[in-house]
Design goal:
Order of helices and strands: HHHHHHHHHH
Low-confidence stretches: 193-201, 213-225
Mean pLDDT: 79
Number of domains: 2
Shape: flat
Distance between the termini: 40 Å
Radius of gyration: 19 Å
Helix content: over 70%
Amino acid sequence: MLQNVIILLIVSAVMCSIGFYKHVYFLSIGYGFSVAGIGAALLIMYASSLNIFSVLQCIVLILYGARLAGFLLYRELKNAAYRSTLKSVAKDESDMSFAAKFGIWAGVAILYVMETSPVFFRLANGTQDTAAPVIGICISLFGLFMEAAADHQKSEQKKENPHMAAMKGLYRIVRCPNYFGEILFWTWCHGRRSDFITWGSAVDHCINSVCNDHRHHDQRCSPSGETAEQQLWQRSCLPGLYS
């Protein structure tokens, strides 16, 4: 098992090494590449012992990672407003030392293996139950589609007004449906494991998503710049549902 863990760590590290170009990629495009790469590696490593459910679990990981990385790449290449925002966020790129980037790289490479570890443990242990993976796949796909739909809706609304917060569609119900979908995707992925490693990474991922929600909310809804429409939107989000 240790040998396979090392292989997954190498795959994760290689796939997220794009962050050495821009450190924000460690946590965005590199994240998607790593999850998709790990899903593909699991299909290859355990090809002789896969059943239909384990194949679907790996495919879901590949779909999630490929969709996320593809969306982020397309947004950066095609969206001038986003490139301008990213440039201001990553303005300290030249000031970041190689040691700092290496530390981030090593940390996220390990984190992405931890996040996908429930699927790995099922394959490594030869778990054959069917109810849990079927339910898990359905919930993960629901989270994946919610995140994809939210990203699309936000992109369309930003075309109308790049400086306005997304407040229509799913954003009328939940403040950050993209992060809520991501939490749904990963929480069930970890739901069948009770060990410290898998739940620790699940909790860490939820905390990071909530922090991203509040950071983005602060950027787009400062008290001095809120419109009446934005204030109404914030009050209309369902309380307790990641709002």
